Predict the 3D structure of the following.
Amino acid sequence: MPARSSRRWPSPGAREVLLPILFLPLSIPVILIAVGATRLVAQGAPDGAAVGVLVSCDTLYIAASIPLFLYALEE
């Protein structure tokens, strides 16, 4: 019978690295849209289009996060 390892994944070091790896792909679209909206406002253009894209991005994130959170609680 093979010996059982007492080391479990994810280790504390892996947990510290996992959050930034998951957060970066989610934050890049929001940062790019916010920069574009700032540029449009600085040029004097109406800011409604950029805000609409930000709101739709937030709606998508919230709609996806609720089922994923409930799934994570079941595990």
Remarks:
- The helical segments are 12-43, 48-74.
